[in-house]
Amino acid sequence: MLTDLPNVLTLLRIAAIPVLVALLALHSALGNVAACVVYTAACSTDYLDGALARRWQMLSELGRMMDPIADKLLVGALLLALAGLTVLPVFSLYAAIIIMLREILVSGLREYMASQRETLPSTRLAKWKTGIQMVAIGFLIGGDKAAVALHLTFLPATLIGGILLWISVIPTVLSGWGYLTAGLSRMMASDPRKSSKIVS
Fold first, then answer.
1. How far is CA 174 from CA 13, 93, 97, 102, 110, in A?
2. pLDDT, tens only, 137-188
3. Distance, CA of 52 to CA of 7 (rounded, Å)
4. Which has the closest alpha carbon to 78: 138, 160, 9, 167?
5. Are 166 and 90 in contact (CB under 8 A)?
6. What predicted TM-score, i.e. pTM, was given to this entire model?
7. Taking Cα atoms as reference points, which of 107, 104, 165 lies closest to residue 131?
C-alpha cells in the first residue's frame, strides 16, 4: 500500500527534490549546508525503505516500481539544477549528459519490457552506479561554500564531486549496456521468428 512506511520513505525522497532545488537557488553557504543535510536524509531513505520492506515483509510491486523512479528523479533533478547553476567542474556537465541519456534509455527499455510482461531486475553494478552518483552529487551540492562554512577549507568539495561524477560514468555505461543486451536477448527469446532471422 502507498501508506506503508517503506513507500512513504520513498515518497519523501521525491518530496525532498523541490526543497533541495530551492536551497541551492539561494546561492549561499548556509543554503548549501542545509541542502547537504536534507540530501543526506533523502539518500538515507534509499537504504531504509528497502531494508524495512524486507524486514517487515512488506515487499510489493508498487515499492519495486517507485524505488528506482525516486532515485532517478532525485539524481536527474539535482544534476539539472547543478548544471543550471553552472557549478559542475572539470567538464562534468558531459558526465551528467551521459548519465541522463542512460537513465532515459533504461527507463524506456523497462517500460517496453513491462508492456511485454517482462522485467529487468536491478543489478549490483547498477546499485554501485547509484551510490557513486549520490556521493558525487552530495559533494557538488555542498561545494566549496559549504566546506568553508564548516571550516573544511582544505577540502576541494566541488572538484571531488566532479571527479566522482566522471567515475560514476563507468558503472553507468556498463550497467546500461548490460540492461540493453539483457532486454534484447529476452525480446528475441520471446519471439522465435526474430531469433531465427538473426541466426540466419
1. 26, 19, 16, 10, 17
2. 999 999 999 999 999 989 999 999 999 999 999 999 999 998 888 888 877 7
3. 10
4. 138
5. yes
6. 0.85
7. 165
